[in-house]
Amino acid sequence: MDFSGKENDVEESLSPGVFDIPGEPAVVINGLPPISSNDDTFLPCPVVIDAESHKNIDFGQLFEGREVRKLFEDKYYNGKVTKFDEETGWFRVKYEDGDDEDLEWHELEEVLQPLDINIPLEEVVRKIIKKKPSSIEKFGGRT
Questions:
Q1: In order of start, what are the domains of the chain with their CATH numbers?
Q2: What single DSSP character describes residue 44?
Q3: Spatial separation of the C-alpha atoms in residues 134 and 131, rounded to whole Å
Q4: Whole-angstrom Cα distance, residue 114 to residue 120?
Q5: How far apart are CA 112 and CA 106, in angstroms?
Q6: What digits encode the pLDDT tens for the residues 29-88?
Q7: pTM of this prediction?
Q8: Phi, psi (5° rounding) for residue 69?
Q9: Helix, strand, coil % (nearest 5) of the chain?
């Protein structure tokens, strides 16, 4: 069995760098900068890369639970991102009036409300980890 294509995909998705998520007050740092054998010199690390052009990194689940506000005709409607579909890259938004719709990133970005900076990042990450099934559960092991 040839896994060479998959290995290259993994290496590409794990390449070190700093990624800017548009509309977010933070950046994601993947990996460490290169280390020189001489402690006195620094090697340049990759410059900020737009997350949209780096499709292999899964940021979609970070937006689950985020609030949106969208103008329909003459009225604003509030809603929340309830789900991210990894296959399509769409975000499911459920509005207070009961309607829902699937949005692509560029559509969501326009209606996404600012992140509440009073919530510690650690708490946000903890919620995401709780939602994700562990690798043992994914492969039918004990839970």
A1: 4-53 (no CATH), 60-138 (2.30.30.140)
A2: P
A3: 9
A4: 14
A5: 10
A6: 666 655 656 655 555 555 555 545 444 346 788 888 899 999 989 999 999 999 999 888
A7: 0.48
A8: -145, 115
A9: 25, 25, 45
